[in-house]
């Protein structure tokens, strides 16, 4: 089937073990779905990888029936990994309802994966059916679109196709509609892949996987595979993970399930289950109803990322000195704080905050404390003050929250904004700032988007929300943190 001349397929992960996949993956068969109805096609992402010229019929064949893309691997592969789930080690996991369908290069020459969710059973499905509900697919589209708009380095939802099966779930009204989702991601090498290799005492496999990451996912790193380069790899993962945690926090995003198998070595956010966006800055706010201890609550996400990095370091300790790995890991708290300062400043259209003279706290800590104590809308604060600094009048004076900005405990935040360094390209001239309120994606809004789809197959609210999110993304893009 034809694709654009700019489409360039690749097979480097499959080439790690082309004979039988061991120890990295298993060849699998996709499910044979009874019906294929295209519900979402991300033409912006498709354009970047040479897939935008596909007709809808061809799109369904590749991303619903999984006909191979020319030059890519012939069969899908389910990746092998272990992981700590709520900090309990689990050997019985791996790609249970997804697989790596293809690898390809984007227009900048960066290697990307097309991975799936809901594509059928694999050797790691355990008792699961390997399927995804349509609501789960819609939620992942919304999460990836919103996070990208807010400057988080995230996977992109490439495609969602409804598949005509009835699914039974304990956390959704059943029978539920089914779908298969394809995501475009900068690699699917999870921390848990290294953990599995370490558990199996496969030192050569660990080294081989490190070399793969350095060569194909972390351009600019030398891929010699010696001890120095292993530490260099770990340093890169720590830096990227610190930035990821910081941008989640600045976006007011709660991932919900920060297990080691849900973290990618590239520092890319992916795999969206019970996520939420904050109404206000509550450090104890959780996304998953089953997270009863708040292990992955909003305020504990940086800690959770650091804990997961320690588990990756433990796996790498089979081939690198513990002392060197420990020293690298010790840099994480400072790196996170630096990244958080930059990420929150960018949410205000600033390159950096000023340093208020009337508080010993960082602007980030002052902001989070103030929003938590006042109940101020987390997203509205950034909307009100984006690229405004100390200008008289403007959105922050006209906001429903204007009275809160007159509180004494907002003074150090105001001072940090007024004395900050504006991002050169950030401006309020975009049409997005003509709105009376920012675009948000709280749980009730997600449900409001889903309800007409479930009841009447009406996608208009979904389409409007995507358009609004992309409008916001355009306005914030110049102030967003660049991805690696």
Question: Which features does this protein show?
Answer:
484 residues, globular, alpha+beta, 7-stranded antiparallel beta sheet, 15 strands
Shape: globular
* Secondary structural class: alpha+beta
As residue ranges, the low-confidence spans are 390-394
Largest β sheet strand count, sense and barrel closure: 7 strands, antiparallel
Cα separation of the termini: 33 Å
SS element count, helices: 15
Query: Per DSSP, what share of the residues sits in E-state strands of 2 or more residues?
Result: 5-15%
**SSE string:** EEEHHEEEEEEHEEHHHEEHHHEHHHHEHH
Mean of pLDDT: 93
Helical content class: 25-40%
User: How many strand units?
Assistant: 15
Radius of gyration: 22 Å
Write the layout of secondary structure elements.
Blueprint: E1 8-10, E2 25-27, E3 37-41, H1 43-48, H2 56-63, E4 77-79, E5 83-85, E6 88-90, E7 100-105, E8 111-117, E9 132-133, H3 134-149, E10 156-167, E11 176-185, H4 191-199, H5 203-217, H6 227-251, E12 253-254, E13 276-277, H7 301-316, H8 322-329, H9 332-347, E14 350-352, H10 363-374, H11 378-385, H12 395-398, H13 411-418, E15 421-422, H14 443-456, H15 460-476
Antiparallel strand pairs: 1-7, 2-4, 3-10, 5-6, 7-8, 8-11, 9-11, 10-11, 12-13, 14-15
